[in-house]
Every structure is written in C-alpha cells, then in structure tokens.
Amino acid sequence: MFSLFLVTPLKLMLLGLIAILGVAIVRYSWVAFSGELERGRFLRALLMTICAVVLVIISNHLLIFWMAWMGVSLSLHRLILFYPQRPRAHLAAHKKFLLARLSELLLAVAFIILYNEFHTANIHILVQQAEQTRGNWSMSTAAVLLVLVALIKCAQLPMHGWLIQVVEAPTPVSALLHAGIVNLGGILLLFFAPILASSSAACWLLVVLAGTSATIAGLITTTRMSIKVKLAWSTSSQMGLMLVEIALGLYEMALLHLFAHSFYKSYSFLNSGNTVNHYLAEKLAGEVKSKLSHWVIAMTLSALLIAIAQWQFAMMTSMAATVLVWFAFAALIVPSVTRWDHGSLACVAITLMFAAALLTLYTIAKHHLAVLMGLDAPLNHSADGFVALLFCSLFALSLALQYWPHVGWIKHLFIWLNAGAYLDEWATRLTLKLWPSKNLLALQHTQWHINTEAKS
C-alpha cells in the first residue's frame, strides 16, 4: 500500500509550493466570488484540481500517476467553463480537452513501454533501474513520448492557443493554471529525468522545439497590450526556457525557474487589477525610454558582475545559462542608468548590490537544489551553444522591435508577431475541422441572433 505513494525531499518542496499557492488562490476566490451564487461549485472544482495535482506529485505507481494526470485535466475543464456563455472559453476548453486526451494517450503508451522494459510499475524503482541501464530503442521511444507530453502540457507552439484563450476564465483559474498546472510538464520530465537523459534524440527534440517556442513566444509578448494576454504569452515562453534547461541537464536551474515562475505568475494574475493603475502611474510620472548606449552600459556592468562571480566561485558551467543571466541582469540594471541625475550614482550602486545579492542567492539555491535533485547529466555543448544563440537572437530582436520599428523587415516581423505568428488560427481551423464542437457552434449561433436583434 505504501509503495503506491512516495514523498521525497524534492516532492516535499513541490508539495510546499502547492500548499502556498493553493491557500492564496482559494482565499482570493472566497473573497472574489462572495457575490456569486455558484461560489460553492467553483470552490469544489478548484479544490478538486489542487487535490489531483497533489496526487500527481506523490504518486509512485504508473497507473495512479496517469489517472491523477487525467484528473487534473478533467477538473480544470470544469473551471475553464465556469462561465459557459463565453464562446472563447468554450473554444479554449475544446482545444484543451482534445490536447489533453492526446497527451494522456501518449503518456499511457510511454508508461506501457517503460513497464515492459523494466517489468515494474513502481516509479521509484523504475527510475533507479533507468539510471543504471544503458539507453536503448525502447527507452528512447519512451523519452520522446514523454517530451511530447511535456510540450503539450506546457503549451508550447503551436499547441499554445488554449492557454492564451483561457484568460476568459476567472482570474483564480488563470493563477492556478499559470502558476501550477502548466508546470506539470516540467515536473514530469524531472521525475523521469534519467530516462530523458538516456536519449540524445529526445533531448535534441526538446531543445529545438521548446527553444524555438520560447524565442517566438517571448517576442510575441513584447507586442501585446492586454495584461492577462501578455502574462499568458510570457508563461508559454518561460515554460519553454524551463524545458530547455531540463533538456540540457540543468535540473537545479529548471527547478529554481519553476519555483520563481510559480510565485511570480500567481502574484501577477491575482494582482492584475492593480497592474493597470501602476502602468498609468508610470505614464503620469513621465516615462524615460532607455537608449542603446544605456543598454551597452548595463550589459557591461552585468558582464563584469558575472565575471567576478565566475572568477571567485566558478558557478557557471553552461554558456546558455550564462547568457540568460547576463541579459537578465542587464535588464535589471538598465533603468538605474537611464535617468541620469545627481542621485543616479547611488541608484546604480544599490542596483549592483541588489544584483550581487541575487547572484549569491542564485548560487546558493542552485547548489542546494543540485544536492536535493541528486541527478547529474553531461552537458551537450552543441545543444548548449544552440540555446545560447537562441537567447542572443531573442535579445537582439526585442531591441530591434523597440528601437527600429519603422524599418521594413522589422515592421513585417511586428505584424507577424502581433498575429501570434498565425499559428493558433491554423491550429483552431484544423481542430474544429477534424473535431467540431457542437456546444461552441450552438453558442456562436445564439450570440449571432442576439447581436442581430440588438442591431435591429
């Protein structure tokens, strides 16, 4: 009985994360739906979803894991359709439902292959045996299937449309989805990391697809004005980064990314109402746009900071991780060097001290999480270089969109990005052609009659 469930230090950390997010989202929902007659129905579906996520984390049996994985999707479906009169909510739920069934089918096939290979349904024993087994065709096939499941769950392009349209659901649903459920793809790969590491084909597949998705989604984020839609595109991009880190074997960095993203997105969605006020306050205060020279100064200071840390602690082993941290610190420093006055020197000093503290915290957290994970995979330097090139492209193109918007090819790029690369339109047409939604068609027909009567 007890072998069906297992709590390791890693799972205990994840359970703590779920508990914190769950309490915050349930408390927010209790207040936000105080005037709703259906508050009880919403809270029941919310708690059912959280319980299913907990069951996924503690499961130590392939069948229980798969059933809990399916339970998360089915309970989330009820939350997405909490307001059933919204056509976009129906469209998002329909696409999510079909993709979820596909991911469950792929996951079931992967689990059957692993069971036949290792002759056990105990996940802990299976993973231990995989660490000691040389990769073969069966493990490589299972690894590729797990990668496809993770890509679907993490809403990578072109399977991202439902995540963008889920903003039609209530805010607590968006917070739960973006801060917790969408991370399950990364958690799946972390749990079965030795199987993924045994297949270079699966790792390369994850690097190329997730890296490309992260780059395109990150650029699309810069073209969006709606707060919740911007956050949704950001989630797709961040999930791509996390999956790339897992593919490179940077498990501790991926886990740190997962925790930071969860807390940030839950706060951002639950506080999205105040974001508009903050945006207006910045406009009234007189926003000063950074120049390219400011970015050069910020990147130089960021590079010096990382070089000193590398000289003292030798903490960076991945080129892609170094480039990512370099750009992140440059973005942190650039506001302090943009508005130059008599107090700017002190502002820059404080910012650099804050950046150094973050770098120290990152180093400590990375070290302890590496011990907690207890996994070690050799770094693929070719894949690492490819990802570093993608990060450089993302940074360069985002600056080009900001500073040279009237150049011909950049203008065309902006239009393409502003349309979401047209990927979701094709995915939606294909989905509705292969498997039409009767509820969605009926709702659109009713909405058309209401609009016609209103105009007449």
Automatic annotation (TrEMBL):
Residue stretches making up the NADH:quinone oxidoreductase/Mrp antiporter transmembrane domain: 59-344
Pfam families registered for this protein in UniProt: Proton_antipo_M
Superkingdom, natural source: Bacteria
Alphabetical keyword list: Cell membrane, Membrane, Transmembrane, Transmembrane helix, Transport
Transmembrane segments: 12-30, 42-58, 96-115, 135-152, 173-193, 199-220, 241-264, 292-311, 318-337, 343-365, 386-404
Entry-linked InterPro entries: ND/Mrp_TM, NU5C-like, Transporter_DabB
Annotated localization: Cell membrane; Endomembrane system; Membrane
Membrane disposition: Multi-pass membrane protein
Coiled coil: none
Record flagged with keyword DNA-binding: no
Description of how the protein assembles with itself and partners: Forms a complex with DabA.
Function of the protein: Part of an energy-coupled inorganic carbon pump.
Similarity comment: Belongs to the inorganic carbon transporter (TC 9.A.2) DabB family.
Classification via PANTHER family: INORGANIC CARBON TRANSPORTER SUBUNIT DABB-RELATED, NADH-UBIQUINONE OXIDOREDUCTASE CHAIN 5
Protein name: Probable inorganic carbon transporter subunit DabB
Organism: Celerinatantimonas yamalensis
Gene: dabB
